[in-house]
TrEMBL record:
Example GO BP: proteolysis
InterPro entries to which the protein is assigned, alphabetical: Aminopeptidase_N-like_N (IPR045357), Aminopeptidase_N-like_N_sf (IPR042097), Peptidase_M1 (IPR001930), Peptidase_M1_aminopeptidases (IPR050344), Peptidase_M1_dom (IPR014782), Peptidase_M4/M1_CTD_sf (IPR027268)
Name listed for the protein in its UniProt record: Aminopeptidase N
Cofactor annotation: Zn(2+)
Family designation: Belongs to the peptidase M1 family.
Keywords, comma-separated and alphabetical: Aminopeptidase, Hydrolase, Metal-binding, Metalloprotease, Protease, Signal, Zinc
Catalytic activity field: Release of an N-terminal amino acid, Xaa-|-Yaa- from a peptide, amide or arylamide. Xaa is preferably Ala, but may be most amino acids including Pro (slow action). When a terminal hydrophobic residue is followed by a prolyl residue, the two may be released as an intact Xaa-Pro dipeptide
């Protein structure tokens, strides 16, 4: 997502308490490597993956192979019937397992067609199958519920509102960072990717859209229409998009014939056309630097909302209308930012939330690089200003790769992290930096990757040990000297 977050009071105590509680709950969590013998005694899957920011997010003991989401959409702000069918594989012998699921009214859960026991506590839905699941077993969980499309949560950082975002005639969704669970029961952590099939029925005067490709539009029951979308590639739950409304679908092609489909509320088609048509140029510009666009299609979903920020939902970025009705410089910064995320954050997913700097730092880096060449501010001047504030940001928001949960989406993860990439480029030179970037999006395409992965890859690609250079930038309490700019100064933190 993109925006200019404002500093907020810290909440280190609350975080420390949350981590302590969650650590007690999850214990030593491994990423699904537990259990070495097929006859291991069945045990509960971990309720969380132990993420440093959100320890209970995601779940242990299984991997999701595919989600099939059926939504019987009725009207804005109106509850509707929904079914999530989750195909998964047990990675340990399971006596029970958890899904992340918040709010909504749960009706029933089956595992392989048999009624399962359920218990809910906070955002944890514990499912106990009739018989334990052996390690390696494929199984199907079916959850029926009444979805409440008014559910929104709030963060006091750049995210602000997330979850379901109602529009005048329908909805869009904003799942980042962990609001997907308000939409469907999920393994809700960015490292956990799976393909999704969406089947959404709507009244016939509305259009439903979702990530990926429209594979079928057919008559539904009564006077309704059923829309089926396939995500084509796996995606993280935080990158899910589904929207319903009175939309015009604006089809074009981009570089290499890439299908571009914008989804635009009817009244906003003409007023937003000029900036939306720049997507093909943005794709060409980014592909020159990063190599091939990583997905089969792209488009902009124009949000008819007062939402403050855009979101890089996979293959279909959500862009609030205000971002497309201002100046061209501002519009292009937001558009290039979300498009850059399709490489950084979407195609290469986050291994943990502490790796957010990789995704937001790159999105801001290329957004600023593009903007400088297209009528915007000087990149160097912006980086010099970020350098000046960097010690203060380290103190207020945590070092780039060491965020605290309340300060996750603060300026340090945007300009503060673009600055780390700027420093790296100054240190290794532009040609070597471009080699690192290409290698990153190529080697980790379709995978989750961590900060350490980035440091290791940068060292490998350049043939020099960059650990000693990057670690102080990413984790230190003090900002290191900026290579090539001995005159740059950091203001002391107060
Ligand atoms: Zn972003």
């Amino acid at each position: 997502m993109s925006t200019f977050p404002t500093p907020r009071r810290g909440a280190r105590l609350a975080l420390a308490a949350a981590v302590t509680v969650a650590a007690a709950l999850t214990g030593p969590v491994s990423y699904a490597t537990s259990g070495s013998t097929a006859e291991a005694k069945p045990s509960p899957g971990a309720p969380g993956l132990g993420d440093p920011m959100f320890p209970l997010d995601g779940n242990g003991g299984y991997k999701v192979d595919r989600y099939l989401l059926d939504f019987d959409w009725q009207a804005p702000r109106t509850p509707f019937e929904a079914t999530a069918t989750i195909k998964a594989t047990a990675t340990q012998a399971l006596s029970r397992f958890n899904l992340d699921f918040g709010g909504n009214t749960l009706h029933a859960v089956t595992v392989d067609g048999k009624a399962a026991g359920t218990a809910r506590a906070g955002d944890e839905l514990t499912v106990t199958p009739k018989s334990p699941l052996p390690k390696g077993r494929s199984f199907t969980v079916k959850v029926t519920y009444t979805a409440d499309p008014t559910q929104v949560r709030h963060r006091d950082d750049a995210i602000e509102d997330y979850g379901w975002i109602p529009t005048p005639d329908g909805t869009v969704v904003y799942p980042q960072p962990n609001g997907a669970r308000l939409i469907f029961p999920a393994n809700d952590h960015p490292s956990q990717r799976a393909p999704i099939t969406f089947r959404i029925t709507t009244p016939k005067d509305l259009t439903a859209v979702a990530n990926g490709k429209l594979v079928d539009k057919s008559a539904g029951p009564g006077d309704r229409v059923r829309w089926t979308y396939d995500s084509e590639q796996p995606l993280s739950t935080q990158l899910v998009q589904l929207a319903v409304g009175k939309f015009t679908l604006d089809d074009r092609t981009g570089p290499g014939g890439l299908p571009i489909r914008d989804v635009v509320p009817d009244a906003l088609v003409e007023p937003t056309a000029k900036y939306r048509e720049l997507t093909a140029d943005h794709l060409a510009w980014l592909q020159e630097r990063l190599g091939p666009y990583p997905f089969n299609r792209y488009g902009i979903l124009v949000g008819d909302t007062d939402l403050g920020v855009a979101l890089e939902t996979q293959t279909l970025s959500l862009v609030p209308k205000a971002d497309l009705l201002g100046t061209q410089v501002d519009a292009e910064r937001n558009l290039v930012h979300e498009l850059t995320h399709q490489w950084f954050g979407d195609s290469v997913a986050l291994k943990s939330w502490s790796d957010l700097w990789v995704s937001e730092g790159h999105a801001r880096f290329y957004e600023r690089l593009y903007s400088q060449a297209h009528g915007g501010d000087s990149f160097e001047a912006a980086m010099k200003a970020a350098y000046k504030a960097h010690d203060q940001w380290r103190k207020d928001f945590g070092a780039p790769a060491e965020p605290t949960e309340p300060n996750l989406f603060k300026r340090m993860r945007y300009d503060g992290s673009a600055l780390v990439l700027y420093a790296l480029r100054e240190h290794v030179g532009d040609a070597a930096f471009q080699k690192i970037e290409r290698a990153w999006v190529t080697q980790y395409r379709g995978k989750a990757a961590s900060t350490q992965d980035y440091v290791d890859l940068a060292s490998r690609v350049t043939g020099q040990d960059l650990e000693g250079f990057l670690k102080p930038w990413l984790y230190g309490a003090k900002t290191p000297p900026m290579p090539g700019h001995p005159d740059w100064v950091v203001d002391p933190a107060t």
